[in-house]
């Protein structure tokens, strides 16, 4: 018979520790002697007595009991944890290296993602800045994201909607322009732009010298700190005279801190006032509502929200142009004016054909997902290795429980051990991240730094450690602490048939992720190779382009041509209206015989000099090239194949096309001279646009081809000499067309390389885990293998015995991963219009890589175990 | 003499501790007193008295070995101290002195 439990529990709860044993003992003794006679009475008396102890002098002090410091306990936890680490050095180092790799990857990816998401946060008015865009219906489709605006809209916004905005700042183009800056003794080419005078305050430039009103001076120029250093050293440059492109006199009116890489204005080295631009190029102010070419940033007024401002200006253009001729003529309903908030500029502003592309944000998500996966893999490793060792520690748990440990204490102990490993791994991960950061930056095209002085960094690291520690430690902590001491100590504890199931599931999960990553990487590379091998329709090697930075290039064009060809370094020189690696203008207004009147045809209109074809090496399908000596060719036109298809023309050579366009000031017939193979000029992932080539207005770029067989190193100095002789004012600045073309792959190249690196790391981490597991299995079965060998098993059969389990698991993982990866890739490749199919060999390759590496890893342990001398393994105990 | 004061029940307990010398613990004191007094007491009263006297240094205590019938709890044995014995002696002397001065009274 047991005394009343509740009364006893109550006694234990309130009674002083030092009296408890005596009182309990006496009560139980009395209870024991009376319970025979009348259990009910004895129980009642017991409870009554307990109640009588509830009095001063016997009640423990509740306030004091918490003053015991638990530090001693934690110290012991960590001491034991440390000893356990040292006891199994191999296992521990596998654990720590795996986890550290995962964490380092997570840190780097975290920094990367943070950098992407914090783009433009450098500007203090981030929340209130927006870009003005246009959107409108065209042929039944709503086109969004047009960033080029008509000039009169600026004035309209200022005069009629000014109360909504603190600043309205026009710029001359988002990429700026290269200009030659000079002082008396120095000449340098720098990138800059014309910008409205409110910009410094709106974008909260960090001023080194001068103030935010530096652009109010019409002949002023604001330069970056690095530019100031380059020209004036450490001295104060305020008020110093400079020249832009050798002819415009300006005065330095401010020096701002260089913009960080993750901002809109990265690389902008100088700014000139917008008003100066207007004064310098007065034709701009004469442009009407039908010419879209300026860009405008706004900052909303303090009491106006972004939504309110957006709603206010939505119909600004429609209202202003209602009664204008061109609207009546083309009968369109006009465009909406929308605000694109700064928060969207980086990741939600990639408009193509009027639709928002989710490419940038998808890339961020993709990379972030990889980071999470790699960290997950590392945590799985940790869990697997810890639980695999559980049997070894089962006895320890049994003893601890018998000695009075309660479960929560054991959980605490295992957690503290996992935290010990996590903290060690984290320190290692920090060191690794710090050392590989420069190479990672190069790979990712970023300027990331570990923000070691930032408290948010440490806070997030702390939560990161806590999260990983809890995640990685939870399974061992709860699983190990659940062992029943009796069965463990009796030795009847056997991990049940299914106890390895979670472990196996985790291994499968690991390899699903790894195989998936390998497949994705391979597919990205495959797509990249496919696109790189795409026929381009001209030859890029040895093609050099030089921007015409002043009018001298045009006035001296003939002399340049002659001199350049005379050096023998170049075979041909041509001029064009833009780079070969992009189409630079698109126009409508084309009519031809047999055209459907309702069909408004748009073409890429490319202005080239007659020698262009010979220089770039385009290939004719039909007809002939321009001939410079034939005057009639100035009204000739060359089409590409895409254009012929687009126009649905049969036998196009010799037909006439009429082009009417106000802004180009043309209204004349063109005769089709020839048809060329499609020249790939825009994004290599898209189809080639229908294009027409005219010998008209080609005054922006000079192209030349280096004579085949002559190296660039040999040719360039001689070419430069020609330029410096003829145009000494302007520094010689050139680009290789093939390099420029390659830069179009940079995003895809980057994703491919990043994914590749991470896939390798994922496999590496998974293999560390497998290695640990295999060594554990081999160790546990040492005796079994010894007996098998004594009975005549061969090394081969022993190897098979140990390896097959893992191989089966990896095969299963492949079966799961392949369909998954296929679905993801199907989805991901959709966005490329020019794409390769997903071929089966990608998956076969990924699976065989995974299998091969698994076999290698496991075999190492298996063969080691199989080669062991049975005498030794059986003797040991 | 404040700390040397001894209540009536305390005195009884102290007497029993002294009487049971070396065998005095909660239950044995309780049963001893119950037998002498012929009425049932609550063990909590004994403990209260013992703790008070321990504070006053009349008794001292030690733990005994583990026994089966107490659910593994040790007994706490009490022994009278020299001070306790002196207080008892004084009490006894005081009482007998006064008692001896009672004239022979007969109530028939």
What does this structure look like?
The complex is a heterodimer of chains A (877) and B (108). Chain A is built from 30 helices and 27 strands. With 877 residues, chain A is of the alpha+beta class. Chain A folds into five domains: 5-67, no CATH class; 73-119 and 385-497, no CATH class; 126-345, no CATH class; 500-533 and 738-877, no CATH class; 543-737, no CATH class. In chain A, the strands form five sheets. In chain A, strands 18, 19, 20, 21, 22, 23, 24 and 25 form an eight-stranded mixed beta sheet that branches. The longest helix of chain A has 38 residues, at 407-444. Chain A is elongated and about 130 Å long. By secondary structure, chain B is of the alpha+beta class. Chain B has one domain: Winged helix-like DNA-binding domain superfamily/Winged helix DNA-binding domain (Arc Repressor Mutant, subunit A, Orthogonal Bundle). Chain B contains four helices and two strands; from the N terminus they run αααββα. Chain B has a two-stranded antiparallel ribbon with strand order 1-2. In chain B, a hairpin with a 7-residue loop joins β1 and β2 (74-80). The radius of gyration of chain B is 16 Å and the shape is globular. The model of chain B has no long low-confidence stretch (mean pLDDT 87). Classes of the chains: A alpha+beta (877), B alpha+beta (108). The interface between A and B is medium-sized, with 19 and 19 residues.
């Amino acid at each position: 018979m047991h005394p009343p439990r509740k009364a006893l529990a109550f006694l234990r709860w309130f009674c002083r520790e030092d009296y408890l044993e005596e009182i309990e003992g006496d009560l139980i003794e009395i209870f024991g002697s009376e319970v025979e006679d009348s259990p009910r009475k004895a129980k009642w008396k017991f409870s009554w007595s307990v109640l009588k102890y509830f009095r001063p002098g016997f009640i423990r002090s509740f306030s004091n009991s918490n003053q015991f410091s638990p530090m001693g306990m934690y110290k012991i936890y960590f001491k034991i944890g440390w000893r356990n680490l040292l006891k199994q050095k191999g296992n521990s180092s596998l654990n720590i290296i795996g986890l550290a790799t995962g964490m380092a990857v997570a840190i780097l990816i975290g920094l990367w993602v943070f950098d992407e998401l914090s783009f433009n946060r450098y500007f203090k008015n981030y929340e209130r800045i927006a870009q003005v865009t246009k959107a409108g219906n065209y042929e039944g489709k709503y086109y969004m994201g047009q960033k080029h605006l008509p000039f009169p809209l600026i004035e309209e916004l200022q005069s009629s909607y000014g109360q909504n905005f603190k600043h309205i700042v026009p710029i001359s183009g988002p990429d700026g322009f290269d200009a030659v800056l000079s002082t008396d003794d120095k000449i340098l080419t720098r990138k800059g732009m014309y910008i409205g005078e409110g910009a410094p305050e709106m974008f909260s430039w960090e001023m080194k010298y001068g103030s935010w009103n530096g652009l109010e001076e019409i002949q002023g120029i604001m330069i970056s700190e690095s530019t100031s250093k380059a020209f004036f050293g450490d001295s104060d440059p305020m008020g110093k005279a400079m020249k832009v492109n050798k002819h415009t006199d300006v005065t330095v009116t401010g020096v701002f801190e260089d913009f960080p890489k993750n901002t809109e204005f990265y690389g902008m080295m100088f700014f000139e006032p917008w008003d100066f631009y207007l004064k310098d190029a007065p034709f701009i102010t004469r442009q009407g509502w039908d010419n879209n070419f300026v860009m405008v940033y706004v900052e909303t007024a303090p009491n106006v929200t972004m939504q309110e401002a957006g709603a206010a200006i939505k119909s600004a253009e429609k209202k202003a142009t209602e009664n204008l001729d061109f609207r009546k003529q083309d009968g369109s309903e006009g465009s909406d004016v929308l605000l694109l908030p700064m928060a969207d500029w980086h990741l939600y502003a990639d408009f193509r054909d009027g639709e928002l592309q989710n490419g940038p944000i998808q890339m961020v998500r993709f990379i972030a997902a990889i980071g999470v996966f790699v960290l997950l893999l590392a945590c799985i490793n940790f869990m697997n290795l810890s639980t695999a060792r559980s049997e070894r520690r089962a006895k320890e748990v049994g003893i601890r429980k018998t000695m009075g440990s309660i479960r929560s204490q054991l959980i605490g102990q295992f957690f503290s051990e996992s935290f010990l490993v996590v903290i060690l791994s984290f320190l290692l991960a920090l060191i690794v991240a710090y050392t590989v950061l420069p190479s990672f930056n190069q790979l990712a095209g970023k300027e990331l730094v570990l923000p070691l002085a930032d408290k948010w960094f440490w806070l997030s690291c702390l939560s990161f450690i806590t999260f990983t520690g809890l995640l990685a430690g939870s399974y061992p902590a709860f699983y190990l602490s659940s062992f029943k001491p009796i069965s463990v100590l009796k030795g009847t504890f056997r991990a049940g048939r299914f106890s390895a199931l979670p472990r196996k599931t985790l291994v499968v999960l690991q390899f699903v992720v790894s195989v998936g990553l390998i497949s994705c990487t391979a597919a990205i590379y495959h797509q990249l190779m496919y696109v790189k091998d795409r026929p381009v329709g001209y030859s890029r090697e040895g093609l050099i382009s030089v921007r015409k930075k002043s009018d001298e290039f045009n006035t001296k064009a003939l002399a340049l041509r002659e001199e350049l060809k005379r050096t023998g370094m170049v075979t041909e020189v041509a001029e064009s209206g833009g780079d070969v690696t992009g189409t630079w203008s698109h126009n409508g207004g084309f009519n031809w015989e047999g055209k459907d009147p309702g069909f408004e045809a748009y073409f890429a209109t490319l202005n080239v000099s007659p020698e262009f074809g010979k220089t770039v090496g385009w290939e004719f399908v039909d007809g002939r090239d321009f001939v410079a000596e034939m005057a009639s060719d100035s009204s000739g036109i060359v089409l590409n194949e895409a254009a012929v298809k687009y126009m649905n023309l049969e036998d196009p050579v010799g037909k006439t096309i009429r082009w009417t366009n106000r802004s180009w000031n043309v209204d004349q017939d063109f005769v089709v001279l020839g048809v060329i193979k499609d020249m790939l000029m825009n994004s290599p992932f898209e189809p080639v646009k229908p294009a027409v080539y005219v010998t008209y207005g080609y005054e922006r770029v000079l192209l030349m081809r280096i004579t085949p067989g002559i190296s660039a190193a040999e040719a360039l100095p001689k070419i430069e000499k020609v330029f410096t002789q003829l145009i000494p004012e302007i520094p010689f600045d050139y680009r290789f067309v093939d390099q420029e073309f390659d830069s179009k792959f940079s995003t895809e190249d980057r994703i491919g390389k990043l994914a590749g690196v991470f896939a390798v790391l994922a496999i590496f981490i998974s293999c560390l885990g497998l290695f640990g597991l295999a060594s554990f299995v081999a160790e546990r079965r040492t005796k079994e293998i010894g007996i098998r060998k004594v009975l005549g098993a061969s090394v081969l059969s022993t190897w098979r015995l140990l390896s097959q389990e893992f191989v089966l698991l990896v095969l299963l993982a492949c079966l799961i991963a392949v369909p998954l990866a296929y679905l993801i890739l199907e989805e991901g490749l959709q966005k490329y219009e020019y794409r390769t199919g997903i071929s089966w060999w990608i998956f076969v390759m990924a699976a065989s890589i995974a299998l091969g590496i698994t076999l290698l890893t496991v075999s190492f342990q298996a063969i080691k175990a199989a080669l062991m001398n049975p005498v030794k393994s059986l003797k040991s105990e | 003499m404040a700390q040397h004061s001894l209540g009536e029940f305390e005195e009884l307990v102290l007497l029993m501790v002294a009487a049971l010398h070396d065998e005095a613990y909660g239950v044995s004191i309780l049963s001893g007193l119950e037998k002498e007094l012929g009425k049932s007491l609550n063990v909590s009263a004994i403990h209260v008295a013992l703790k008070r006297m321990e504070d006053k240094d009349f008794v001292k205590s030690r733990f005994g070995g583990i026994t089966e019938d107490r659910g593994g709890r040790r007994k706490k044995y009490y022994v009278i101290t020299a001070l306790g014995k002196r207080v008892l002696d004084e009490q006894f002397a005081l009482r007998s002195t006064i008692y001896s001065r009672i004239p022979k009274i007969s109530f028939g």
